[in-house]
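Purpose: get a first structural picture of the assembly so the mutagenesis plan has something to point at.
Setup: three entries, given in the order below. No constraints added.
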Amino acid sequence: MLAALLCAWQLLPATGLVPELFLPALSKTLAVLFSDWKIYGVALLVTLGEVVLAMVIACGGGIACGAVVGGFSLLRTIFLPIFSSLYAIPIVILYPVLTAWLGVGPQSKVVFAGVYAFFPVMLSTAAGIRTIDPQYLLVARSMGASLTQQVMRVIIPAALPTVFTGLRLGGALAIIGVVVAEMLTAAAGIGYLVTLNRTILDSPRVFAALLMILVLSVAYDMLARRLEARLLKWVPQRQSPMGPRTGLNTATTATAA
Amino acid sequence: MENDVTSGPSRDYALQTKGLTHIYRGVQGEVQALSDINLVVEAGKFVVIVGPSGCGKTSLLMMMAGLRQQTSGELLCLGRPMDKPDPSRVGVVFQEASLYPWLTATENVAFPLSIRGDDKAASRQRAREMLALVGLNGFEERFPHELSGGMKQRVSIARGLAQDPPVLLMDEPFAALDEQTRMTMGHELLRIWSTTSKTVVFITHSLTEAVYLADEVYVMSARPGRLIDHVEVNLPRPRTYEMMATEQFGMLRERIWQQIRMGH
Amino acid sequence: MRLWIPAIRALAVLVFFACWELFPRLGLVNPALLPTFSEVVSTLWGLLSRPKVQDSIFITAAEVLLAFAVAIPVGTILGVIIAENQYIGAIFRPILFYVFSIPKSIFLPMFILVFGISFTQKVAYAAFTTTFVVLMSAAACVESVKEEFLLVARSYGATRMQLLMRVYLPSMLPMLLEAIRIAMIFNFTGVMIAEMYASRTGIGHLIAGWGENFQMPQLFAGILLLSIIAIIFNESIRILEERFSTWRTT
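Result (structure tokens, whole complex):
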């Protein structure tokens, strides 16, 4: 399937079926990518740096808050409806505020992507924490386990799948957030290259940048899932993205942005 | 230990309660879960507590395990009260196997030993022995999600036995299994019990299971739970499936069922 | 005892707005960067009477509704096909799996290249983004109808039409409403991104402009307006959802 798409990408423009302006041939795109690799390389590093920092905020904060909110049902009951309602607001409209406050540099991107990814990660973690069987602690207590033992040997391993989901989700959303921010107002980064080259109608360069973004997000997703599968061998499989899960959960819908 | 009508000459029973009462605060005010429970369990016996749902038998077990404290009355295990869980005296097998999914069968069984701080190699060795005892040779490195319901409960039993406590408490361990597996597991349990000479307190609401497994049956009433009967099951051991068809078996069942019905 | 929970929520919201009002006033935050809440509200009031702002609101609303009107049918049909048809499902599911982790905003330049900077481009982009969400939700909805329900109905000889109307629809209704609610959130976001990125009209464009020119009161006024609209829509659908969800156990 992938091969078919790649062929189409090469053939459609090359044969003139699709104007080169709209979709430059794959060969031209790759050529430009190689010739300008320094520019793209630097941009990629900038973007990656922003993504990593955003992830620290989103995953670090999101998982911690999610664990706290999820663990204490009172907090959940009080605050969850508020967060659900706030979810309806397109967070992108807050970006101009950030550029006004923090300027056009990486700070605004990091904060934006950090906040953008924060809520879904927190909500997903809170939901995941609730799925931990309370009986696990009872069993440990019956064996005379101390509090430290209970936390280290029961709660933390039991929470791992949730934490991993949070990390995967947080990373994916951080990438999306950074890219959108860079496309809107930036001075560096891959998204910036997209916008820059679009305004001068240099399609191959635009698509080269788009290709990089594509590869980045897919690579991250695959890496995260691989890691998850290897480290969490003990989790009974619940794979498919659309399917047995009856219900639209935040994790899967959030990445559709 | 004072002389008492219910306990005879003083000696340490495996378990003993006197006037055990428990009241807790529910959503709509106070609920009396247990009312004046007086029972004794002699060492080495297989005692079953049977009663309708909600009669407080699980609460009673929790207290025997040291996981809950009674409101009033006395509970002694091997002569001393249980104010907190003490795996050197009491092992617990819960209704839901509650095996930790991130640990293999062996690691699950070794878990109480590692909590206690035992040497790793010794723990693993002991865990394997326990798994062999419950008939799970060859499944030591499996994860819980790869095991059937019956197997999971076996691991849970092995785990309860790991620290070699003299008393084993079991809270409806076979409730989540289908009937055929239940019968097999019951039989298995008796085999394990006969080779380990432990005291077992077993909770169930199945009358058949009660009579089949027990030396003595305590019958509890509906909430607030009181002891309304104490039945001695004099069927010979080892128990066989054929015994379930005998008249004596039927009469014992009837008696318990009558008591429960009237106790409502 | 349960009454004080909504009270705490209300209190939290009030505290938020109180801070918004007080911090700039007291100089804890630079009022040039964060205008007081009252200032934002009065600016909003003033803006709403300006024809340029009214036009922008109108255009944005039109884009949102049009994109929605396109995405819902298309997404639903595709989603249903993927859920119902084994072969098509098997082919497309893996692809869609990966597509979901891609930032859809990277397609925005493509739409601009094809349609230029225009009303059509924004609608097309938003519709494109939203279709994916609708597709996924529709597939999930269809799959959520329990096999047993269908089996029972079929055993009584129900026709396909009857199955559709009397089993599928009622069973899926709460989920459909939730899907609509979430789709609108993404739709709105899509339109906003498009307007802020490259557009000459619409509220998103105005907001981007205000941001660039450091016109903070107007910027916050715009944000406030959009937030209110988004929340109103969200909560209305949610109320409907709850009305039809009384029988749900999930």
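The first helix of chain B runs from residue 57 to 64.
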